[in-house]
Q: What sequence folds into this?
């Protein structure tokens, strides 16, 4: 969608990140910081989400993670949930300074792995008054056994080589499956993600990139696996004291999600939807998930 203001801001360690600000009408309005998921750009995350939230009375600030899209940072295409949670603090600061925003009513909406970063940030940032996560990344310990065979060992080998021989160009692996065979075959050179849902997400990301003329690459650094494997967003949930809306798809592992939500430090609501992953689609599940988010924001922000 158009009609947004391009914004750039600096992180605590001096990296310039860039985002899009979708301002709603009025003054002193609540704002939602939108955090993209694994391998996503800000445009993938905002799509029709920003329009719907803005129409409901919320300004939206969607930004690119460091190393992705329009933001600075090296190496490119590296996902580090711990670093992303730190950068999210600075994104909240940037959003709070934007025109028309009520800095006392800030919400964070994290998608997929961005949801993991949102949980970690909300656990220690008193400025975040409401947090919504959609199919969040919850545990590297649980995910690592599902990585393509030997890839995590390759990540450790790369670290050993760099410490022994000095810096070199980072190694990469494919993130999302691009066809049915890749989605259902797990081997040494398989994409990180697999299954029909992952294939659907790749197709949505690719369609967005084509439609919006984005420079999007379906890859992440091999060192992303090391950083993902050591991250445990679920351990931070007991410290999330602001209202939490936790959305997952109906076919997700319900037991683990129920257990995690039960540990929240404040009010927490678990909702199962047909399509909680916020893509630019037209399904009933998409609108159901969006309605739940708007309703939650109206009650708690």
A:
């Amino acid at each position: 969608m158009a009609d947004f203001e391009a914004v750039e801001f600096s992180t605590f360690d001096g990296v310039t990140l860039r985002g899009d600000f979708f301002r709603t009408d009025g003054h002193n309005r609540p704002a939602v910081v939108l955090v993209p998921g694994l391998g996503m750009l800000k445009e993938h995350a905002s799509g029709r989400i920003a329009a719907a939230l803005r129409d409901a009375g919320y300004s939206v600030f969607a930004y690119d993670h460091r190393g992705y899209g329009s933001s600075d940072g090296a190496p490119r295409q590296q996902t580090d949930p711990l670093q992303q949670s730190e950068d999210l603090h600075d994104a909240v600061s940037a959003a709070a300074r934007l025109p028309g925003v009520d800095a006392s009513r800030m919400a964070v909406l994290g998608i997929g792995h961005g949801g993991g970063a949102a949980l970690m940030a909300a656990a220690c940032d008193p400025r975040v008054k409401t947090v919504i996560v959609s199919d969040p990344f919850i545990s590297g310990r649980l995910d690592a056994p599902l990585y393509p065979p030997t890839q995590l060992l390759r990540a450790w080998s790369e670290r050993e080589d760099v410490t022994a021989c000095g810096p070199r160009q980072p190694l990469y692996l494919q993130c999302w499956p691009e066809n049915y065979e890749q989605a259902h075959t797990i081997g040494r050179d398989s994409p990180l993600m697999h299954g029909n849902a992952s294939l659907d997400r790749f197709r949505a990301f690719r369609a967005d990139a084509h439609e919006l003329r984005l420079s999007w690459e379906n890859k992440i650094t091999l060192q992303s696996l090391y950083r993902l494997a050591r991250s445990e967003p679920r351990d931070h949930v007991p410290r999330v004291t602001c209202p939490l809306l936790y959305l997952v798809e109906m076919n997700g592992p319900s037991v683990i999600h129920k257990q995690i939500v039960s540990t929240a430090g404040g009010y927490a609501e678990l909702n199962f939807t047909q399509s909680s992953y916020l893509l630019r689609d037209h399904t009933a599940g998409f609108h159901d998930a969006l309605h739940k988010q708007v309703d939650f924001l109206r009650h708690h922000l």
Q: What stands out?
A: The first strand starts at residue 5 and ends at 10.
